[in-house]
Amino acid sequence: MGSVHRGSGQDAIESCKPAPYGGACPACSRAKCKCFYRTDGSGCERCHRLGKTCEPSNTVRKRKARDSSPPSRRLSPPSRGLLEEKLDDLVTLLRSQASTGREAQDYKSSPSSLATSPESRKPNPLNAVLNPDVVLDTVETFIDLLRPPESQPGYQDRDSDMGPSSPIFNDVEVHQVPDLEAEDRLNIFRRAFIPTFPFVHLPPAIHSAELRRQKPFLWLVIMSLTDRVVDRQFAMEDTIWKIISHRIVTQHHADLDSLLAIICFSNWSHYYKQDTPFMNMLTQLASTVAFELDLNKESHSASQQGPRYGRTSSRSSTQTDTRTLEERRAYVALVKLTSTTWEAYRKFRPLGWSPYLGKCLRILAEMKETKLDASLAAQVNCQIFINPILYPSSEETGEESKGQPITRSLFAASIRNIQEIKRGLLPELLSSCPLRLYFNIAELKLRDRFLNTTREARDPQDQLQRIQDLEATMECVERCLGVIHDMPLEDWVGVTVDKFSEFMHCLIALFKLTTLNEPMWDIEEVKKRADVLQLMDKYCETMARVAVETRMVDAELPRKGLFFKGPSLLRAVRSLMAAEMANKGSSLAVEKAPAAEHAMEIMPDVPFDVDSQNNFLINLDNEPWLSDLFIDSWALDLDATATFI
């Protein structure tokens, strides 16, 4: 019997049951041998054969489901145990670091210590990402940190109960604004600034404290723009520049708050501009932040999640994000900003049309949150098709060359396109001053370009057609002047760089019509309808009244606030006009409206700043939008070009 049992070892093994995966007895596991349990339940066949006591297995592991892929190299059981211990230690370390990070959040930094504090070298940990869910895959040996969706850009609006999560929140604490005053400034921004450029939606339910917690950088820019004390306004400007240089440029901090703040700061940059304009630099920085956030795309693709092994992901590999309405609005506002910057300074081409931009414009036109979304979409729609006409692609620098002349059919089609866009808007929107001024100026720009490139009148019929074109341009100028006249005085504080250039474009177009010496064109009739020099005097007085009515307090020299130096800048433009009209023999107009040196006799309450006027004339090369308007001539004679700049 014994010979049968021990002589037929293979038969004995075949009659036994193999141990399940991870269920081998300790003796077989240490010897790295296969373990076969006997059918009578007395232990394994090897221990029975060696006369040892068979101890039961301590753990039972689950077998991984087989797939069709080639078998990978398997780790031995002791190696797997060691790996699990290391992963447990790593999880413990991560959680201990997270608790330490929460304690470190009590450290408060100020803008003056941004460059020297340890916090300036490393961004603050965010509340929303301190305790991620840790997923351990012991088979493929990787760690996946699944962070909550609130850690994505713009999440603050989705959960108003979240605490301050941006490192910039601590940077703005140096500027303490009383609650009532902050609410008043925020309401001023809603009433006078946002309708002019609706780049963000701030419903009345959002109070200043909540906005400061959700978007501290945007809050700081808003508080600076609406501060009536210019010295405090410039102090906040210093903090804004420190945040831009340290947080965004040095630390590569990019979120929706940063993008909206830069867009806001750039669109009202004339509040802070000194000698050299910085709008170009800020616009390019805003574009960089937007592309860093992938706001020029519909969603994040799974292929952009990074490598699988050792990755730190913010979402699962199959999850994608659809853009929020706030993100789409921010990208459309960026497109408008790049167009405005290109028109003003001609340094780089604006963002053009794309299928994604078209979808954003359609969604904004539905006005799901605010009617002003349709206003922004209409302006960008209009800008997209008139930009190639006003500034052809062959024009890279914005210098004298203006490309091919505009044909009358293209000009007429462009005017019809503007009318079509206007018909798609609500009457309530079309009656607003900012949108009325925009569409009238868009038409005026097309007429300016058309008159500048069609200077031939070969027969009486052509001459009659040209007079009709000039009359239509004059009517367009009168409509623009009517809108400017209808603007409430308190809304002048919200005028953007774009609106200020539109305002100047209207006045310079009137100046061209006043000095255009052509057969059949009556310049005396133009002066009766609208005298450009008298209007310049009127607007100088209006800008001075804005500072008085809104109780602004100017800064100490040498810097001056926008509405304190604005009248002097307008007088500088007026002096250029008066000098050119004198050169062309319009002595009557000069006598009727005195030149700049006699302006104090007309407006004794408005201070005359000679230094501001001289600085404006010296730095006119930095303002191609203004010098181009003066240089371009509508005269039939190609030699009749303004020469005073």
Number of helices: 28
C-alpha geometry: elongated
Q: Which strand order does the major sheet show?
A: 1-2
Class inferred from helices and paired strands? mainly alpha
Low-confidence stretches: 1-8, 71-75, 103-163, 301-319, 394-401, 586-610, 637-645
Hey, roughly how much beta strand do the residues contain?
under 5%
**Through-space gap between termini:** 121 Å
Radius of gyration: 36 Å
Oligomer: single chain
In total, the number of strands is 4
Biggest sheet details: 2 strands, antiparallel
Helical percent range? 40-55%
- Quick check: average pLDDT? 76
What is the total number of structural domains?
A: 3
Topology:
Blueprint: H1 2-7, H2 9-14, E1 17-18, H3 26-30, E2 36-37, H4 45-50, H5 77-104, H6 118-121, E3 133-137, E4 142-146, H7 168-171, H8 179-193, H9 208-214, H10 216-225, H11 230-250, H12 256-267, H13 279-292, H14 325-345, H15 355-365, H16 372-390, H17 408-423, H18 427-430, H19 433-453, H20 460-486, H21 497-515, H22 523-529, H23 532-549, H24 562-583, H25 587-592, H26 599-602, H27 610-618, H28 624-631
Antiparallel strand pairs: 1-2, 3-4
Helix pairs in contact: 9-10, 10-11, 10-12, 12-13, 12-14, 13-14, 14-15, 14-16, 15-16, 16-17, 16-19, 17-19, 19-20, 19-21, 20-21, 21-22, 21-28, 23-24, 24-27
